[in-house]
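Re: that chain you flagged

S.,

Sorry for the slow reply, it's been a week of failed gels. I finally had a moment to sit down with the sequence you sent. For the record, here it is as I used it:
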Amino acid sequence: MSLKTCRFTASGSDTSQVAEVISQALSGEDSDLTILFSTRDCDLPALEKELRSVLQGPVLGCTTAGEIGPDGFQQGTVVGVTLKGELDVTVVPIPSLQNLDSRALSAVRQQCRQHTETCPDGWSSFGVVLIDGLSGAEERLMASLHSILPDIPLVGGSAGDDLCFEQTGVWLEGRFQTDAAVLAIINTPLPWSLIKTQHICERPQIMVITEAAPDRRIVFEIDGMPAADAYAARVGVPIEALGPDIFSRYPMVLRIGDEVFVRSIQRAQPDKSLVFFCAIEEGLVLSLGSGKDLLADWDRCLTDAQQAVGGASVLIGFDCILRRLELRARDQFEAAKVITQRHNLIGFHTYGEQRGGVHVNQTFTGVALGVKA
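Prediction finished late last night. Pasting the structure tokens below so you have them in one place:
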């Protein structure tokens, strides 16, 4: 038993080229699963039309804050991979995240259960989730999916829009839709391994969130001071210097027991509040974080995943946009390209990452699929 894969990349500015490249990757066959990640900086309706004309079989896709493809870290492109072999895939749409209720979750559970219950002996199942990255619904959705599907390991990412923070979408019913998510349940006899790593460590500085709007992921005060003022003082930079590069280097960190969870800042607002990429609440005690060697940690993690499956035919990855910004600031894109090519990585830069029932930040998650059973 084996898996045939074909990775592809094309410029998002030439939608006909995208269709041609995907058509070549499909080679006239139905794909057991086509995964694609697209720049938002393109003629999206034209791209959607071209994709509808060539895509066959189950599709999993979304818009990005940057693509990870055959040429390493890419921008303004459409990247992806076709998978053909010992896979049985169903893609479950989850529309209207703001109105997600028990009835909708019950329907998701029923579709997933019907699919996994058909698994032959020796097969196993995992799920890949893509979510509208500006929906603010990741925590609630992932907790709900984990609750209704406790025995199906989940991994995924939040769609991006090239740091515009205007509109992100997941591929659903032939177009990129907002306020939506998709869940692909994958049954296979092939070995697979879910991946999660982060390179952020705690620093001694402790801060308390003293005023926040959790439903909007906004922090107004830290230690009784305007949030941006307090954060800039702890980092040791003027408030005018706050931006993606500083946020990527010095995220906030939450410790729960023995685990550390990164709580990354999206942007500072004129009123000196801070908008986060994840849920944040009043009374939380956070530390300032800083990073160890990102590339060494990442390469080690992907190497471990390769070994776990006896050599991966493909790795699908979801990498936080702030990790990309950190590597850009350090001029390490070429070094990152070596790693992505070594491990056959296809993925995208996200507005959040998912693993199990948890939504995380400044993290890499993904799945490695083995070559043969």
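What I noticed first: The longest strand covers residues 200-213.

Talk soon,
D.
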